[in-house]
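Q: Sequence in, structure out?
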Amino acid sequence: MTVRIDERQTVQFFCRAWFQERNLEKTVSYLTDDIKFVGTGLGETAKGKEMMTRYVSQDICEIPEPFNMDFSVIYEQRLAEDIYTQAVDLTLINSMYMWHLRFFFTLKSREGKWLICCFHAAEPGSSQQGGEHYPKTLVFENVMKQRNELLNESIAGGMMGGYIESGFPFYFINRRMLDYLGYENEAEFVEDIEGLITNCMHPDDRKRVDEEVERQLQCKDEYVVEYRMKRKDGLYIWVHDMGRRMADENGRPAITSVCIDITTQKKAQNEVLHIYNNVPGAVFRCRFDEYFSIIDANDGFFEFLDYTREEF
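A: Exactly. Output:
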């Protein structure tokens, strides 16, 4: 004797056969031949019973362990005598996973038997809290994006990165930095520097910068350094480079840095140093290099500080 099951039972028995029993043949027996399915993954769809059978078979093969199933109906509605819809909450738990899903089913009655003709699955977003129409986390991300855009517009420079290897092989450069240096695209920049970030620095600065970056990274995962950077037109600008150690998508050690144009400040600084180092008639005088290191001083300077030259 065949036991007739109603539309509500059909959905529950289908889920039980698939997730609790992991029974392929029994699962697809609740489906129409023209079944249509949309899953939670990108491009995760099936049309027709043959395609759906392959999908369920792969699902069972990947995780053959049965799930404990918490099944509850959200809403149900009979649209016509032979058409029924149901939405359910489904929590699946086994030794490997716990997954909360929502399924939306449409069933048709054919020859006195209810079959699923269409269903899709959804995974509730963790970024959207109860009572929110729009996730606050996404609103926050948009606010942060706007702030970053404002920050980018107010700073002369951009971002770039290199791998922590000899010459700092190219990792990335953002659009703003490309525009600032005058390059059309990333490929043009990479070709010009021959694939090494070091080659965008002035030749006289490269050894010093490499040594300073290496020394600072040995103490902590960040560094600050200043050097001359070449633009596409061959001219050089002074940049204040603030970088941080990180890893790329494959775990390869790299650095990401923010480079700010300080050419104007450097020019003003050099003018001040020139004036200071060449004031006539000074009782004491000392000379500084561009990094404000003392390179020379007269005896009056040391007398003013109450040091001998040797003590200082």
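The two ends are 107 Å apart (CA to CA).
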